[in-house]
Write a structure and sequence with these properties.
- The chain is α+β, with helices and mostly antiparallel strands.
- It has 2 domains: 220 residues, 3-Layer(aba) Sandwich (Aminopeptidase), CATH 3.40.630; 104 residues, Alpha-Beta Plaits (2-Layer Sandwich).
- Strands 1-2-6-3-7-17 form a 6-stranded mixed beta sheet. Strands 12-13-9-14 form a 4-stranded antiparallel beta sheet. It has a 3-stranded antiparallel beta sheet with strand order 4-5-18.
- β10 and β11 form a beta hairpin.
- It is elongated, with a radius of gyration of 23 Å.
- Its EC number is 3.5.1.16.
- Its cofactor is Zn(2+).
- This is Acetylornithine deacetylase.
Length: 333
């Protein structure tokens, strides 16, 4: 068959809406495209018609992986100058096509030990990655996860732990504050303590970061607030239990609700590539059974999830070459 047209296939994928939870159509398209090119395709059911797509032509030692879902809102593709625009062009449909084209080029040269794993659900909860890890055949030695790293290999990335702080007070008329207890004031005192806390630091990943993402509470300006809640997200660099332990001193003021976490991850790297720590989380920490993990991709995370998401066509073509270079190095090791 003819070589993949990287631009045309990227645009076709971008033009299929695949907001997280609604990936069925893109799963069908990707699976059929792979089968038409002679791959053995395994569809891993996640929920309903949402499936991961695993494609092989031999026994894979290296897997290229990325995700098929996108954040909303859907925007179709267009080419302006040297860039493809549209939702998912950068994160991560252009990456998917670069990986696909790299494996096609290696197949044409007789190399069949590289496979493809395209996942659903990465943008919200990584349910596809969790299913893929359960169904791993345990034969791969390396997994190269595709995310927008601007053509660099990732040294690793922070994980996350989300917690909610719940303060309880006692309602009263604001003209008689001594009859009540302000939950908002208790919550603010707790948050002030959190802002002053020494959070864990990792020598490679750097310091733990956190964001107070939402605060809710109170009934009316003339009512002492009986309840208040804050939603916090910590970008963690050590086991999440360490952050929970640091928060213990605020328990007299608030209840601490653990919501979820994704581990941080140190990744393997190779000589000959620029390297960086990325600030976002990915599927990679949940794909433990697929071997040693690396991460590389074209495009910039700074335009992902924006109304001007785009990727340079030259970066997609460079990634096709770089993915081959990475795979050959790993297979030779």
């Amino acid at each position: 068959m003819d070589p993949l047209d990287v631009v045309a296939l990227t645009r076709r994928l971008v033009d299929v809406e695949s907001t997280t939870g609604d990936e069925a159509a893109v799963c069908v398209m990707v699976g059929e495209e792979l089968e038409q090119r002679g791959y053995a395709v395994t569809r891993q059911t996640v929920t309903g018609a949402r499936v991961n797509v695993l494609a092989t032509v031999g026994t894979p030692e290296v897997i290229f992986s990325t995700h098929m879902d996108c954040v909303p809102p859907f925007t179709p593709s267009r080419v302006e100058g040297d860039r493809i625009h549209g939702r998912g062009s950068c994160d991560a449909k252009g990456i998917l096509v670069s990986q696909f084209a790299a494996v096609e080029a290696m197949r044409a040269a007789g190399e069949t030990r590289v496979g493809l794993l395209f996942l659903v659900g990465e943008e919200r909860g990584s349910d596809g990655a969790m299913i893929a890890d359960e169904l791993s055949r345990g034969v791969t030695r390396f997994l190269v996860n595709g995310e927008p790293t601007e053509g660099r290999l990732a040294l690793g990335h922070r994980g996350v732990v989300r917690v909610k702080l719940h303060a309880k007070g006692r309602a009263a008329h604001s003209g008689y504050p001594h009859l009540g207890e302000s939950a908002i004031e208790k919550l603010l005192d707790a948050l002030q303590q959190v802002r002053a806390m020494a959070l864990p630091i990792d020598g490679v990943l750097g310091p733990t970061q956190f964001n107070i993402g939402a605060i809710n509470g109170g009934l009316a300006p003339n009512v002492i607030p009986p309840s208040a809640t804050a939603d916090l997200l910590f970008r963690i660099v050590t086991p999440y239990e360490e952050v929970l332990a640091v928060l213990e001193p605020i328990r007299p003021l608030v209840d601490i609700e653990y919501v979820y976490h994704v581990p941080s991850l140190h990744m393997a790297t190779l000589d000959g590539f620029e390297k960086e720590v990325v600030g976002y989380t990915t599927d990679a920490p949940l794909l433990n059974a697929w071997g040693t993990r690396l991460m590389y991709g074209p495009g910039s995370i700074h335009v992902a999830h924006t109304d001007h998401e785009s990727v340079a066509i030259a970066d997609l073509h460079r990634a096709v070459d770089d993915y081959q270079r990475i795979a050959r190095h790993l297979l030779a090791g």
